[in-house]
Amino acid sequence: MLEAFRAVVESGSVTHAASALGITQPAVSAQIARLEGELGFSLFTRTGNRLRLTSEGITFRAEVERTLDRIDDLGRAAEHIRQGQVGSLTVASHPMAGVALLPPVIAAFVRQRPNVRVQVFTRNSDLVRGMFPSRTIDIGIAELPIDPTGLNVTRYRMECVAVLPKDHALCAHEIITPALMSGLPFVGMSREWAAYHLVNNVFAEAATRLNVVATSELFATICGLVANGVGVSIVDPASAQQFQAAGLAIRPFRPLVPYDIAIFHSTDQELSLIGRTFLDAFDMHLKRFNAPATETDR
Q: Left, alpha or beta for 69 (phi > 0: left; psi -120 to 50: alpha)?
């Protein structure tokens, strides 16, 4: 009825209002009559072939415009929500992903969705895993292993790379091996990381010496130390690429040292369109590092 009223006001006639609304003239007249009956006062007077607002109609028109404008605003807001353009996303991430993987993904994500707010918590993998199932965190990213109970889990495997100071003698080699790194100053990783044990095993199996001169819990710190000439190391490819411009040389390392992470969310709460779109963006970014995805739904 309010739409019919506004159409008659704007066009000045029932006939034109009916045409604008795509309904019949009697239907518009019936809606106006019903509205006047509910209000208890007349809205229009007829002058020739045109309708003019009564004094009460003029006052009522201002209220109708405010109401319909608000309804239009709600309609636009609903459309933005349907399109995943409005809302929020909370991500809990372990440090490697928080420093090396998420920033470019989030930057591109919010450029396309300026009304979406993204909040990131960076914790170690054990704490991130302990946050789920959760109704306050939408998405988690952590190193494996991940208990899939109550979670939708997508796993990614990246191949770690050798990182060297840009003017290091090993830069002459296309592929770095334990034999080439044997005895050289090495920047190691925390014992809590699965990669620590994998690297140690690779060097032990090759009967080579791992000469650790410094250690860090963060791949980013390891890359910074290597770029400043402290030693050589083995890190994930995303962290390595971040520091390439700072003086880091990157080479493939063999035998393979895998780095496994997972992105996951609770099964007891449906992920929003924003969340699903973010998962797709994260997946596309990981493919830059030849990281195939393996899904496990529980």
A: alpha
